[in-house]
Amino acid sequence: MSGVIVSMRRTLLSCTSLARNGLLGSAFAALLPAAPAEAADLVDTLSIMLDFNRQELAVLATALALLGFSVVAAILLMRTRVRTADNEARLRARIGELQLQADRFGALLFAEPQVLISWPAGDNRAQISGDISMVLPRDSSPQRVLAFGTWLPPEPALQMDHAVDALRHHGDGFQLTLTTAHGHTLEAIGRAIGGQAIVRIRELSGLRRDLAETNLRYKALSDETEMLRGFAAASPWPIWAKGENGALTYANPAYVRATEANSVTDAQERKLELLDSADRTAMDRGLKDAANFNSRLPIVIGGERRMYDVRAVNVGSGSVGVAIDASEADALSSALVRMAEAHRRTLDQLSSGVAVFDGQRRLAFYNDSYRRLWDLDRTFLDANPDDSSVLDQLRAARKLPEQPDFRAWKAKLHEAYRAVETAKDTWFLPDGRALSVVTTPNPEGGVTYLFDDVTESLDLARRFDGLIRVQRETLDSLAEGVAVFGSNGKAQLFNPAFVRMWKLSSDAMRGEPHIQTVEGWCHQLFDDPGVWRQIREAITSIENRADIPLKLERKDGSVLHGMIRPLPDGATMLTFQDITDTENVERALRERNEALEAADQMKVDFVHHVSYELRSPLTTIIGFAHFLSDPSTGPLTPKQAEYLDYVTKSTNALLALTNNILDLATIDAGAMKLELGPVDVSKTIELAAEGIQDRLATDRIRLKVEIAPNIGSFIGDEKRVVQVLYNLLANAVGFSPQDSTVGISARRTERSVVFTVTDSGPGIPADMKDKVFNWFESRSQGSRHRGAGLGLSLVRSFVELHGGKVRVDSIVGRGTVVICDFPTDQAAHRDAAE
């Protein structure tokens, strides 16, 4: 520093001349640094210089200012160099310390075999250090460590690739336990540190490996526990666990719902149980004796009783249980048993021989046709012999096909027990029979054999070949025109009648012309485009193949009846028959029938009109007869009263006959409507019986009435039901001898009310039973009965209008029984009335 001051002084002295020229200023004094002795000398010098005049001082001041700036710059430079030297020394010392620390950390880091892989930020090149011999041979390139598939199995290698990618791109750390292809257990840890992605791979051994394996087992056990808890919570079946004292320790939501608890805690506090006391006792006994319990029990859940499969096992010091809804399975099992039994009964009725062998190849079922087919002893079959024993016995009796290697043949037959599809074969037996054998694998194991005697079928097949040869001759001799067209539309077969009927050339038809060509040839006789289009479509169609009748009226006045018939091989047969004469006769018969129907309708209309016209004057006559018989009109002589009584009876009979004819005509015209309402059965029988009381008294006939208790009523037309019963009773009284009994009874069945009227008359011959319900069909059969024969016709008509039925049972000489069924179903009444 002192050297600098001395230099400055010399500089000032040398600059005196400059001060005289006014180039320096007094401001330089302020820039000088303060120093001890050197500063004092500088001040003295400056004092001497102050003696210069002002102009000289100005020059001196400027020079001193420039000198001061240079001094300050030199001082600052000096200080910077000193500070840099100090920093450099300290930095070298720090680098030495860091190098020592890095060596110490490196020695500590690689004290055990491991591999470090680091990727600087933004750089895809990895730096690899450590002992790679733990994953690769020593002479391998370090970069091969990055090919994880070379030293790891496929799945861990893929897992490692994904983890490294996530670390490098997203900074996601990881810790994996890997097993190499050579069976070594490694630990891979990845972290993002200081902008670098670092992966550390080391071998797990000793305590560390045990700890890692323990952690893995703990995690697996924890995951398994959570999975089981989730499954139990989502399960629709009640699941529970109990402690050593039998108290509920766990229950899933299904158990809580089944016991109608609010929560698991509520079920535990209230000690709610799923099973009743008897079933719980049985379950506790089973757990105590056999450490498990399995039974199908009824459980009431939500007010509904259902069947559940309850399973419980001892686990540790407690037990766990589950109740699986088996109601549907129980119902299906019962249905399956019933179906199997019905199936067996059906098989037992088949004419084909059926034998069912189970999974152990033992006979489980056979029908009587099987026993008779092979003529086997029932005792032998009932002993459930195996398949081989049955075949051996049949072979010993020479009932099986002769085989050069019977063992190989039997082994091939028994391949059906391992097959999945049905196999078919034909056996030609030594006795000349041919059997069709179908072997079907059973879903539950075993095989079902189906034997059919096809001897006649094969014989028929042989005969069929002979029939084919006769076919051509037969077709040629037919009067009907026949032509067969293939699926390609070309003619394959024809007979001479077809050629003659359509006036075609036989040589042209032998060239197998297309149907369109044949259509062009036939246009001169029949040119309806719609019919020909229908024929073409039927011949060339693939789907919706069905018989199509045709009727062709040709230009020459002839009428042909045709039929389009698809054949099994895809061909189509056309047949044509000349029905010109038949059509003419049919037209005549149709016209005659229409005339007869018109005449019959005129008869019905006439009867209806006459009956209506007769009823009006009859009503007047009956009215005046009643008026004359009234005492208020004056007294009558006995003869007049007798004549008036005859008139009254005759007019009443004539009016009843007229009403019956009118009712029958109305029914026949479809205009009769029932007035439906409640019909009291007892009251109806009483009203019908009142109408025949005088005839019962006259002929000394007793009426026996039998009405089932609480028979009640049914829906019907009461007036018409009374009319039915009256006609039946009148008919029975008319045919019954004096001093006999006529019976009427009523009973209710599930769907109807049944009226039965019986008599002890002469009975009805078998050839007359179907005619007794016809109009005007009346035969006395040697009895006192006389009438127009309309009563039973009305009975059948009214009963059928109600939707019911009438039947007659009669034995000649023993009487007649008439039974009427009136349905109680209102829908049947409504349909009948309509």
Shape: elongated
Our measurement of the CA-to-CA distance between the termini, rounded to an integer number of angstroms, reads: 144 Å
Count of distinct strands: 27
State mean pLDDT (0 to 100 scale).
78
Main pleated sheet: 5 strands, antiparallel
Instruction: Classify the helix fraction into a percent range.
Output: 40-55%
In percent terms, what proportion of residues is strand?
Answer: 15-25%
Side-by-side strand order of the widest sheet: 2-1-5-4-3
Number of helices: 27
- Class computed from helices, strands and strand pairing: alpha+beta
Q: pLDDT under 50 segments (min length 5)?
A: 1-9, 11-43, 45-53, 830-834
Radius of gyration: 62 Å
Catalytic activity: ATP + protein L-histidine = ADP + protein N-phospho-L-histidine
Pfam families: HATPase_c (PF02518), HisKA (PF00512), PAS_7 (PF12860)
EC number: 2.7.13.3
Organism: Bradyrhizobium zhanjiangense
